[in-house]
Design a protein that fits this description.
alpha+beta; 64% helix
Length: 148
């Protein structure tokens, strides 16, 4: 599946969908299969927004990025004849995790304002958003470790 959104080409490979469903089942689907219907879109949006953090940082330099979501998460790439400095690369690298922190902050704020909504959803939704920030292998690593 390919599309263009916010000036960025996005490709979602079949492996992404397979792993999202598998990890969702291992994480929450075995308890309540209905949660799997919420888990997969949350993972999709979380990883896509993380990659858009990198993409928007790249676009600030007049470079056109592309995003691919694959079986192990996502990747933002770009081709440029313009040479970026080390500090620019650092900002681009930090932009993805900072986007995750922004999303988590918004979700926590929402939970403060509406404490009774989405009874069980916020627990794994917040974990999905924050996981790539504090574990290098990202959310995918959690499901891989839990597999029998």
């Amino acid at each position: 599946m390919s599309f263009r959104l916010f000036g960025v080409d996005v490709e979602i490979q079949v492996g992404f969908w397979i792993n999202a469903v598998l990890i969702g089942y291992l994480s929450v689907g075995s308890e309540d299969p209905r949660l799997l219907l919420l888990f997969v879109p949350i993972i999709l949006i979380s990883i896509l927004l993380h990659e858009y953090g990198h993409a928007f940082a790249v676009m600030r330099h007049g470079i056109e990025p592309s995003i691919a979501l694959h079986s192990m998460g996502g990747r933002t790439t770009w081709q440029s004849t313009k040479r970026l400095t080390r500090p620019q690369h650092i900002v681009i690298s930090l932009a993805g995790p900072l986007m995750n922190l922004l999303i988590a902050g918004l979700a926590l704020g929402y939970m403060e304002v509406f404490p009774m909504s989405f009874h069980r959803l916020p627990r794994f939704a917040i974990a999905a958003v924050l996981r790539p920030v504090h574990e290098p292998e990202g959310f995918v690593g959690r499901g891989v470790r839990r597999a029998p």
